[in-house]
Amino acid sequence: MNLVYSDSQGNVFDHPDFLALGRNAEMITEIMEDELIPLPEGATLVSLPFTRPVGIDAETGDMKLVPGDYHAVGALLPQGFTRLLLPGYVKSDKTKALPLFGYTAVVWKDDAFYVAARLTDNPYFWNPIHCDVTELESQVKTLTAKYPENRLYAHLSNCALGYECLTASNTFLQRWEGAVPVSYSCNAGCFGCISEQPDESGFVAPQTRMNFKPQIEEITQIMLEHLRTPDSIISFGQGCEGEPSTQAALIVPAIKQVREQTKMGYININTNAGLTDHIRGIVDAGLDLMRVSTISALDDHYNAYYKPRAYTLKNVEKSLRYATDKGVITSINYLVFPGVTDREEEIEAMIEFVRRTGLKLIQLRNLNIDPESYLGIIPKARGELLGMKQMIEIFEQELPDVVLGSYSHTPKFYASDRNTTMVL
């Protein structure tokens, strides 16, 4: 398997004299054949700035930097695929941070690109090729004209057309999981926040956070427009907002008003679940689905990344347990990173957390972060490093009643034969 690299203009090549390597956190490692799958449809190859590619010299068997002014290359995977290894690289400028993306090891073999990844959910629904731009532009015009005073539709139109956010696009295409952002504030200071970064962080937030407080009517208009089919999902908590439960005073009456008019579809919240009292009110208002973001079930790791304000991981657990007990289908948005998530202590803690909260789904999400910056803020490994592939296999064995996936699903998904929908 040949090393893949790029020149300073971003042109991508494979190197006939170097074998590819990957990274598991700080450790450069061999890529095994059973860790590779063909480059998925919808994936993107990107050059990693400020890096040098590392590989095995095929002639000598030594680990070396590729000579010349070249950069490492990684793949950005679509939803439905979980990264197993980072690209093999070292930084040429350690003061610079990589943009906030989830870089995956990529190789060239058998005349094709392969990535160190695993299929964990059906990628169809989140493949950008299924979003017709012409149809999307037409629908944006239709709904913004129908609701000219609705600032949320105006905001989401930029998310859909400017940022190419698929959830926002679904809102206009009136299908699958749509977005209804509500919050300009947050009760956490996530290290890798994609909508708000302090100037001194060194990161550039890839999205702009909403900067207004919507009216209940604006929220209900979007919800009622989207909840028109039995399988539709409308979701609070998007990448362009803060923590939605901080606006429980808007969400609770909005849910109640919508449910007075229609029982169609499902209402979801993507949340950090730290505000347990607010979550209880939202659940009691008629919530159907809840996805809770977490990076660890260990307090020190969780706190280092989320920087929670006036809540703890114990509050998160209480919120999940309450929602589960009330019949809400609960899941976690598990931000995973090779060399960290697959540590022995992380796996053990997460298994116990899942058992205590009774959730039904672990959504494995590749953490978008500069690896060196992330590794610099979290605790050092305390146990053995097992590898992402083995971590997934352990979850499957120890949590047989919990689904491993990549995104939210309607209730019928859990009663169906999920293997029939897992296609490349």
UniProtKB/TrEMBL annotation:
InterPro entries: Aldolase_TIM, Organic_radical-activating, rSAM, rSAM_sf. It comes from the Bacteria. Keywords: 4Fe-4S, Iron, Iron-sulfur, Metal-binding, S-adenosyl-L-methionine. The keyword S-adenosyl-L-methionine applies. Residues 181-351 form the Radical SAM core domain. Pfam families: Radical_SAM. Its cofactor is [4Fe-4S] cluster. This is Radical SAM protein. It comes from Paenibacillus chondroitinus.
